[in-house]
Write a structure and sequence with these properties.
Length: 232
């Protein structure tokens, strides 16, 4: 009887030990390095855009996610509305020493509205709907809303030589709770709150350094972010 119980407990112990070793250290700050680009075709309202992101569980070397993304944009004439359709390829890594990765392919649609207040506070609202094909999961969808605010500190616009405060908050909601293989998720997925400082190197080139706090059902963690925004 004891031997049978021991044989049952050993795999359970190994499973629990693996699960514990895979837990994210919430006290360790991660780092995300990001490049965003966009351009508009001359004489049209159409453009292309994309980004490359290298996200780490630590300051560098422990891959959290590699993102390659690109898409098509359309700006409604004589308005502050813009729409985008994009495809992204994601490689996500496990926390810690494991080299395990999994793949996700994603399509999303954006609706963006930009406006300013008192010619000094520059807002952008973004609604995003995602269709997700995650390895070893069922097809999933997700809804996201983000509010961005840029505030120039040394001049009244975000043009060349502007130093500005950057703030944004984004909430994520899952479209499905059952995602396959007996796995479930909550409707609330995560929230990102970011604050940072930016500098406009040129009218079409900005660099930002900031800190983002990520709150999710799995973990709560801080991330340093270094971002480059390029329009051409």
């Amino acid at each position: 009887m004891f031997k049978k119980l021991k044989l049952l407990l050993i795999p359970l112990f190994l499973l629990l030990n693996f699960h514990a070793s895979a837990q994210v250290n919430e006290d360790k700050t991660g780092a995300w390095y990001m490049y965003f680009w966009n351009t508009q075709f001359e004489g049209t309202n159409w453009g292309i855009l994309g980004d490359v992101q290298y996200r780490n569980w630590n300051l560098g070397g422990d891959l959290q996610q590699l993102i390659l993304r690109g898409g098509l944009s359309y700006s409604i004439p004589k308005s502050n509305f813009r729409f985008a359709l994009a495809y992204g390829h994601f490689i996500s890594g496990a926390y810690g020493e494991s080299d395990a990765t999994f793949i996700e392919n994603r399509i999303h649609q954006d609706a963006l509205f930009s406006h300013d207040f008192n010619s000094r506070f520059f807002f952008t609202h973004r609604l995003r709907y995602e269709q997700r094909w995650v390895e070893n999961q069922d097809f999933r969808t997700r809804y996201r809303y983000s509010l961005f605010l840029n505030i120039p500190l040394n001049q009244q616009n975000l043009g060349k030589n502007a130093i500005y405060l950057a703030l944004n908050d984004e909430v994520f909601l899952n479209g499905q709770q059952h995602i396959g293989n007996g796995q479930t998720v909550e409707t609330f997925d995560r929230n990102w709150f970011y604050s940072g400082l930016g500098y406009s190197v040129l009218d079409n080139l900005r660099v930002q350094l900031g800190y983002m706090h990520e709150s999710s059902n799995a973990f709560n963690k801080g991330q340093l972010q270094l971002s480059l925004f390029h329009s051409f």
